[in-house]
Give the backbone structure.
Amino acid sequence: MKHNQAEDTYAFLSTFDTVFVIDDSRSMAGRSWRESILKSYVSHISRRASNVDSTKPVNIIVITDGCPTDDPESVIVHHAKKLDQIEAPPHQVGIQFFQVSNNLGNTKGLCELDDDLADNGIPDMVDTATWNSTTSENGKSLTADGILKVVLGAAVRRLDRRSTQGPSLQAFFPIGSVPTRFMIAFFRDRDPAGRCEPEGMESTSPSTNDVDVLSSSTLAVDSLATPAPSLQEETPHEEVEHQYLWRCFPDYVWSQRVRDTPSWVWGFGYDVEDSSGGRRWVCRRCIQNKNPKPRSFAEKGIQNANAHLFKGHGIRAPPDKTKSAAEKKAEKLKAKDQRSIAEVMKLDTRLPREQDIANSLVKGFDRKHFQRLLLEWIIEENHAFSVCEQGRLRQIFEYLNPLVKITDANITRTTIRRKVLSAYEMHKDKVVAALKQSCGLIHVSFDGWKSGNRHSLYGIACFFRDENSQPRKLALGVPELRTRHFGHNIAAEILDVLDAYGIQDKIGYFTLDNAESNDKAMEVIGGELGFVGSRRRGRCFGHTLNLSAKALLFGHNVEAFEEQLSGEAALSEAEHTLWRRKGPVGKLHNLVVDVRRSDQLTYLLRSIQRSEFDLSSDPRIRARQPVDLIIDNDTRWLSQLYMIRRAIILRPFIEQLVLKHRQQWEQDNRSKRTGNLRKSAREPRICLEENQLTVNDWVVLEHLAKLLGFYEDAVKTLEGDGQQRKRKGGWVGSYGNVWEVIQGFEFLLEVLEDYKQLASEIPDAEHFRINVNLGWEKLNKYYSRLDETPIYYTALALHPAFRWGYFENEWKDNTKWVMKAKQMIREVWESNYRHLQMVRSPVDDEPVAKRQRKYYNPFQAYCERTRPVLGYGLVKEEATLSDDINEDTNELELWQSSWEDGDNDVRDPISYWHERKRRYPRLSRMALDFLTIQPMSAECERMFAAAGRMVTPLRNRLDADIIGMCQVLRSWLRAGVIDDLDVSLLPTENGRGDRAEEGS
């Protein structure tokens, strides 16, 4: 049987799976474009990489009324790279965008999409064929050839190059020698003037392949005649337009006059007349857009139609035709704004000296560098994307350098969003390379957070070592968890992120909070990656301290107490009673809330302080400024500490405040006739006896302030990231060292033991005595669980200043503890490191800079005091010891049984082991792996704090992907892994550097 040519051509579709996607500019928001189609298909191909040819290609046709609302560019780049990696054949995936609107802004967006694809290593893929919609023979119908190009343009190259009648076509097809897996065809309705560029865009010069198409379809405005009804049958599209036309102009019919008209505007309108023969021009664009009041003008006032087309629709007059006054005015303003630098600076370029000045100014301004700096500033400082469009800011830029405006260097919020999405995909490869080249294990921390605009996010950070063994950190992702927060759901998101970076085989240990869901998550993660999850899971020291401090402050059932609080600024009577029952801390909370909620009491407290300062003979006291009470944040223990400290400072003023407030209340509520208090008068809450802070209450508060101060010392010492920085006071060192976790528990348990005895001697301090015991029990509960993982014992034992000696000295009364710790460390050594194959470097690595450390708080002094005295019973190791150690030698036992001069003074075990990588190749690897584990999941908290500053009430429409990518890019930029945030924004010589904030 013989088939016609069209049927044969369409039969080619049988080799593809064709998917039609209808996008109404809302349906593809978020990650649906990636997740619904491409992700599953490319993942399927990747799994069958050895036999890709057996997978049927896919032909995706996207019908849209505008630009897709999510980000096709980064998706295309991402999956194109994946297909290149598995060497998929060309045209494995075809994508076409069929736009059915006249929105010129969307046209510009898709043109920019093509430019950015080229910037990302995807070859330039644009070709343009125009169409003359004003000729009656073609009308506005989509021809058979046009349909053929829509369906097969991304799969058949000869069709992609063919011109068509009907809607204009911008067919994106791959050129050059690099095989490209994606072909995009983009169609949009041509406006009647035949223009395809938005206002302000210059036309693309036609290529040699397009000359025949362009020459045969150029708009001939000179020969335009009054449009008459076509004798051909109306298309459905035209029929709808004409129905709307007659509904808006019920008394009109087509004009009966057929003659040449001199004005070009008739080509953009309908020619109608009323029953009296009065001829009118009706705007065709208004009818097409279904404007409720389409503009029309009488034949004699046709010049007004000229102005309407320009003002209302941005349609300009042809080059040799009459322009409206509005268009002429706009051209003058545009010409004025596009003055040269010589004109702006009033330089006469005919003079050599001033010509040199103009040239130096032009050469001195790098447009791309300016855009890169602006983009980095917005990302790093969490500014709203719209800040770059603020008129005042742009005026500042233009004042500082007029070339910002002359070269059109300002960017828009849409540009920033697009560049953020593409930058993430582009720079991700650099991060993947950095992680794969890292030495040793990569440790992970993750935690959950809910943003102000109700996105449930999980922050994931990793910690690794660079080539000089320096600890480094990076954010890997902030995925949104859209399902219930069960352990297996959390694990699935974490595993997806780890898989995206290809680091599954390098994963080490995790630092997580005590949430029960994390137990199940680690079980699933361990099962997938081949280890026992509970053995690789460390518990966040800060979270443990938080539980102990809450018990210390509020006693039993802290969670139930928190649930009963409404979170409102003002206290109800029921909440007031709940707080009062919590003892001195609760009574102080009530007092502070009542004072802070009353302007009268706030100003009275300031007035009392001011009067007291003014009476002093000391000029330093007279120079003081009054301070307010600090209100706590519900049950955040550090906020309670700060509240207590301020209250102790203001104690004498608080007592005067209560007294004066009571006197004022009595005066206001005393009867002038009898001199007695009115029976209806209600005494203020802060004046009631049961709410008063007694002398013993103040004693308890002072002890709590001191006790919580020890907690503060421990948490601030351990909440860092282990990286070396210059600290306040000029010393160089690190906070957040995992080898200090055991000492942190020992220090606080010892302090609480002392306070148990002290509390028994304080009269009327029942709450305090009970809560000290509860705080000790909570801390001891988690201290006894440290042996669930070898992290803490191994890190402390491999510190050259502590070794086995710490356990033998501090636990001398518990020999079972000592034996258990040594056994766990030896098991890790024997199973994972003793027989590890090592490749020795022929040249020694450069030593890590020494860290000089000082001790400023009692916890750090305790760590110093518990250093064992080395040398007794150990063999002194000479500095000249040969680097060559036999592979059968037990490096762990050899090192533990020997010592060197200066071991007891080592403050930085990381640099110590880096310098001994050749002497102890396997033991140093083990030591560096464990010494770089994080003691707290504080990095996730820092990430969420930054995200919280980004998601303000004025930016509540930010989607989860943008929030996450901005935070990840911010992390990469601050870590120095990337130098710029866009491929078109070239890095400068000094663009790289340490951007980390100074530690506290």
